């Protein structure tokens, strides 16, 4: 392998220039402020975690983890997601804190992908976790909060689809009892949204006509509340019925939140993490073909850290949201102060006053004829239009001092 050039970066990471950072920070702060107003308190966890604890609990496949050895030879990992680290904190530092806990976060996470995959190895997530509440109201709160956070982040148009892992697990076990390998093949097709492959696999299985039709009809179980009624006709197991009952309860609470127009039921969803135990959901922006948020219920994860508790949560895929937000980040008024060198004190005092009032201020000294000519040209342009100076845009120009003062 050749030595990298001085300007090269590792595959899958990127630099963020000022305009992108401004938008990224606005997304992050707007989403976190939204979560704060819902009662969620921000938490920060380390970038590095032990492989044998958080690394194992996250269920990110081993080949996608960035692993390192510390000076003692212990394997540590760069965090691949935030739910497992927060579970560790809830079971340790917050062990005596009464439940439920509402926690939020913003962090960079790391996952290794093949070089040709074209995916980010480092990306940002902003999310929330509700720990200690196993009710339908808690699941609905998380979905409604995700919708509110997407709106706060500036996503112009989106939809959220939610399902339940218990429905597919129960239905597949009912129709393919004990045939785990075959169940996993069908689940993998649904996870990859490969519905053609799902039908092909189904045709290869030894099934009676009624069971085959029931599994085929799964692909049509997407829509509103009526989907739950149709799903009950496909399976009779207790797990199937419990899952559909919970989805119906969540749907009703979402109606009370006033967000039913943003959500739909999708019983083809299986979830990307094995620790999901109940409701799962994804949010899609109209401009993108992949999720900008995802989440669900994970009632078994906390037990791995010694504090069994139900939990539900979600993450906004902040880096993806950056790609769908148009225009510049909202900023305070940007003021350019140009000044004669003898007016330095006055110019800096004015800059300080404007900064204290919330303006962004840049100062520059007028040191020669060319500088003064440029300043006069900018001042003559006047009007309400933004002005350009040395590659930067400003809303207002202030000139302090006079050219004559410099001649004396």
Written account of the structure:
The protein has 408 residues and is of the alpha+beta class. Helices cover 39% and strands 22% of the residues. The chain has a nine-stranded mixed beta sheet, with helices on both faces. A three-stranded antiparallel beta sheet has the order 2-4-3. Strands 14-13-17 form a three-stranded parallel beta sheet, with helices on both faces. Helix 12 (344-356) links the parallel strand 13 (334-339) and strand 14 (360-365). Helix 1 (18-37) crosses helix 11, helix 4 packs across helix 10 (238-257) and helix 6 (180-191) packs antiparallel against helix 7 (195-204).
Give descriptors for this structure.
single chain, about 400 residues, alpha+beta, BirA Bifunctional Protein, domain 2, Rossmann fold, 2 domains, nine-stranded mixed beta sheet, three-stranded antiparallel beta sheet, 14 helices, about 40% helix, about 20% strand, elongated
Helix and strand arrangement:
Layout: H1 18-37, E1 41-42, E2 48-50, H2 51-57, E3 67-69, E4 75-78, H3 83-91, E5 101-110, E6 122-131, H4 136-153, E7 158-164, H5 165-175, H6 180-191, H7 195-204, H8 209-217, E8 222-223, H9 226-231, H10 238-257, E9 263-266, E10 279-285, E11 291-297, E12 311-317, H11 318-324, E13 334-339, H12 344-356, E14 360-365, H13 369-381, E15 387-389, E16 392-394, E17 396-400, H14 403-407
Parallel strand pairs: 1-5, 7-9, 13-14, 13-17
Antiparallel strand pairs: 2-4, 3-4, 5-6, 6-12, 7-10, 8-9, 10-11, 11-12, 15-16
Helix pairs in contact: 1-4, 1-11, 4-10, 5-10, 6-7
């Amino acid at each position: 392998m050749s030595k990298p050039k001085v300007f090269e970066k590792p595959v899958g990471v990127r630099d963020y220039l000022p305009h992108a950072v401004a938008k990224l920070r606005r997304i992050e702060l707007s989403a976190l402020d939204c979560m704060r107003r819902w009662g969620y308190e921000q938490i920060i966890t380390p970038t590095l975690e032990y492989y044998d604890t958080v690394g194992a609990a996250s269920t990110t496949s081993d080949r996608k983890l960035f692993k390192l050895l510390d000076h003692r030879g212990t394997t540590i990992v760069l965090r691949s997601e935030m739910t497992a680290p927060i579970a560790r904190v809830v079971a340790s530092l917050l062990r005596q804190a009464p439940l439920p806990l509402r926690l939020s976060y913003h962090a960079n996470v790391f996952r290794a992908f093949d070089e040709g995959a074209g995916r980010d190895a480092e990306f940002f997530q902003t999310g929330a976790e509700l720990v200690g509440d196993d009710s339908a109201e808690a699941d609905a709160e998380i979905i409604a909060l995700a919708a509110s956070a997407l709106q706060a982040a500036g996503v112009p148009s989106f939809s959220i689809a939610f399902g339940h892992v218990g429905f597919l697990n129960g239905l597949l076990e009912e129709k393919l009892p004990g045939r785990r390998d075959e169940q996993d093949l069908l689940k993998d097709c649904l996870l990859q949204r490969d519905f053609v492959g799902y039908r092909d696999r189904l045709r290869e299985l030894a099934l009676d006509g009624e069971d085959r039709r029931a599994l085929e009809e799964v692909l049509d179980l997407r829509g509103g509340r009526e989907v739950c009624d149709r799903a009950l006709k496909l399976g009779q197991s207790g797990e199937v019925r419990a899952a559909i009952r919970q989805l119906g309860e969540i749907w009703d609470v979402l109606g009370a939140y006033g967000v039913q127009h943003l959500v739909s039921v999708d019983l083809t969803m299986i979830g990307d993490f094995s620790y999901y135990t109940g409701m799962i959901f994804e949010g899609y922006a109209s401009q993108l073909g992949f999720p900008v948020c995802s989440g669900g219920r994970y009632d078994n994860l906390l037990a791995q850290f010694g504090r069994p508790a139900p939990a539900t949560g979600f993450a906004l895929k902040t880096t993806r949201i950056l790609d769908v937000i148009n225009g510049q980040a909202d900023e305070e008024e940007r003021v350019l102060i140009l000044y004669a060198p003898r007016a330095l004190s006055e110019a800096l005092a004015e800059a300080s006053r404007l900064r204290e009032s919330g303006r962004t201020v840049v100062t520059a000294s007028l040191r020669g004829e060319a500088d003064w000519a440029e300043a006069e040209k900018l001042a003559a342009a006047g009007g309400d239009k933004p002005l350009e100076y040395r590659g930067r845009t400003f809303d207002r120009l202030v000139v302090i001092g006079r050219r004559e003062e410099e001649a004396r």
